[in-house]
Amino acid sequence: MNRLPLNFYQHDVLEIAPELLGRVLVRKTDNQLYRYKITEVEAYRGEEDLACHASKGRTMRTEIMYHNGGVLYIYLIYGMYWMLNVVTGLNNNPQAVLIRGIEGINGPGRVTKALNIDKSFYGENLFFSNRIWIEKNEGNSCYYTTPRIGINYAGEIWKNKPWRFVLDNI
DNA sequence: AGCAAGATCGGT
DNA sequence: CCGATCTTGCTG
Fold first, then answer.
1. Residue A31: inside a domain, yes or no?
2. Which is more confident, A170 or A156?
3. Residue range of the domain that includes A102
4. How far does the CA of A106 sit from the C1' of C4, in Å?
5. Is there contact between A153 and strand C, defined as CB under 7 Å from any strand atom?
6. A79 lies in a domain?
7. Residue of A6, A26, A12, A7 lying closest to A163 (CA atoms)
8. What is the structure's pLDDT at A100?
9. Residue A1 lies in a domain
10. Which nucleotides of B are covered by protein (CB under 7 A)?
């Protein structure tokens, strides 16, 4: 078993987000096994982060972000794109990492389209699932950071946080 | 019950 | 730059 253990995810999202870069996202369907390196992520951190959905408080949608890390937070945006997020941190500490890009596929909407991920993955456990997980991978991940994409509504403080992490191919 | 907006993308 | 498309959370 080469999967990342659950306690890997149960630390602060700002620590985990860059750690996910270069790891292998595996998706298994009846007739396919997809393996992609994670190349781009964003961190969403706590109720005070106005860009994080948890800033609206604990609702049916954000419920899973309040759980222990290692499960998936999935939601639909703009009526057509599923967003794939990995919940991190501990109970009652809502945070998640948005997977924005994998090898050869850029854009969070394209990631879920390529891997056939939808609402049915909400709450999926990355250690116990038989259809999606993340594997360990040796590797120094060089990366750079930028502000997060598409969150201009979040106000000066939060929209400028350098919480987008992009793998650097040197 | 109704409405505005959104962690996007592809086509003009 | 604009339209597609629908869930969510807020307002009344």
1. yes
2. A156
3. 6-167
4. 20
5. no
6. yes
7. A12
8. 98
9. no
10. 5-10
Q: Which residue has the tokens 């309040």?
A: A66
Question: Is strand C in 7 Å reach of the CB of A91?
Answer: no
Copy the structure tokens of residue A132: 């999606």
pLDDT for position A169: 75
From the CA of A102, how many Å to the C1' of B6?
Answer: 23
Torsion A64-A67-A69-A71 (CA) sign? negative
**pLDDT tens digits, one per residue of A119-152:** 999 999 999 999 999 999 876 779 999 999 999 9
Alpha-carbon distance of A82 to A105, in angstroms, equals 15
Q: How many CB atoms are located within 10 Å of the residue A89 CB? A: 24
* DSSP state, residue A17: H
Determine the distance between A33 (CA) and C5 (C1') in angstroms. 30
Which residue from A53, A148, A42 is spatially nearest to A101, judged by alpha carbons?
A42
Nucleotides of C under 7 A from a protein CB: 4-10
DSSP states along A39-91: EEEEEEESTT-TTSGGGG-S-TTTGGGGS-SSBEEEEEETTTEEEEEEE-SST
Total domain count, chain A? 1
Assign residue A142 the CATH number of its domain. 3.10.300.10
CB distance A21 to A141 below 8 Å: yes
In a domain, A105, yes or no: yes
